[in-house]
Amino acid sequence: MNLHPLTPEQKNEYTRIAYYYYEAGQTQDQIAQRLGISRQRVNRILAECIERGIVRITVDRSPEDYFASESALEEKYRLKAVRLAHSLGADQLYGNLGVVAGQYLKSIVKRGDIIGCVPGRGVAGLVDNMPQMERTGLTVTQLMGSESRREYNLEVDSILHRFARKLSALPQPLYAPVLVSNAELRESIVREPYYQEAYAVMKRCTVAVVGIGTATTYEQYITGANRQPGTAPAGAAAPVGEICTHCFDADGQPVEFPFSNRILAISREDYKNIPTRIGIAGGPEKLAAIRAALRGGYVNVLITDLDTAAALLDET
């Protein structure tokens, strides 16, 4: 057979399918359902794997492939998918996670999808390291208002427009801050037609791409609300994580933000109704927040690093 060379993305897909079939013992129907492709495509790829020498007696896996750990995490936390990257220092980690997240996003995005995004290193790493995708009929929207205190390349409005360019998508901005000075002002803004139209797009999101914040993120929001350094109110449950301004404790249970009536963002319920919620985070400082987010169902696709995955699997 005269075979064309595989791109890195194709090699990853072929090797993943070979692993699922030959080492994990899954049927072709199970693999097709898991990856959202046809059984005929799975069958053809498996045949090519033998022709190409990817499959001999065992699956020929490169060091970048962590399929066993991915599968174990998917089963433990009942996730749609897990993709793992090398564990690197903080300066390089999010670029590496972004490459892996971009490969996954490219494999699932389809015409008509509405993709919601938030600020932070995780989503910025994706946007800056993903390939250009020529797709049609896509929309990218903010899931929360803007924060002027962040570095500009980490702000949600900057991420939104860079993300839309990479996806050849229509950007849907939210022209509002994430935190306003009082509840009355928030109520006035949410009644405005432009805000209601933007929020309606948020509610129709099919994919969310988010970072996973820590307790420090929670304290930063309180500081912003008070205009001075702040911590959780006395007697309040201790938050360990945050996604899209929604805080949660170690078990993933909601911790209400004391200034939630001043926040402009998608609601906790509407966020959790988004079918695919991709969380991008890694490193030891994020471990507790990632674990809590998984327990609380805030993400159903996890992009993280190998060391973090091992720590999550070590826990009973």
Structural features, described:
- The protein has 316 residues and is an alpha/beta fold.
- A 7-stranded parallel beta sheet has the order 1-11-10-5-2-3-4, sandwiched between helices. A 4-stranded antiparallel beta sheet has the order 6-7-8-9.
- Helix 4 crosses helix 13.
- 40% of the residues are buried.
- In angstroms, what is the radius of gyration? 20 Å
Overall mean confidence score, pLDDT: 87
Return the CATH class of the largest domain: Alpha Beta
Number of helices: 13
Strand content: 5-15%
Order of helices and strands: HHHHEHEHEHEHHEEHEEEHEHEH
In short:
Helices cover 45% and strands 13% of the residues.
Jot down its keywords.
alpha/beta; 2 domains; Arc Repressor Mutant, subunit A; 316 residues; 4-stranded antiparallel sheet; 13% strand
Topology, element by element:
Blueprint: H1 8-23, H2 28-35, H3 39-52, H4 67-77, E1 81-85, H5 90-108, E2 114-117, H6 121-129, E3 139-142, H7 156-167, E4 170-172, H8 183-190, H9 193-203, E5 207-211, E6 213-214, H10 215-226, E7 241-243, E8 246-248, E9 254-255, H11 268-272, E10 276-280, H12 287-295, E11 301-305, H13 306-314
Parallel strand pairs: 1-11, 2-3, 2-5, 3-4, 5-10, 10-11
Antiparallel strand pairs: 6-7, 7-8, 8-9
Helix pairs in contact: 1-3, 2-3, 4-13, 5-6, 6-7
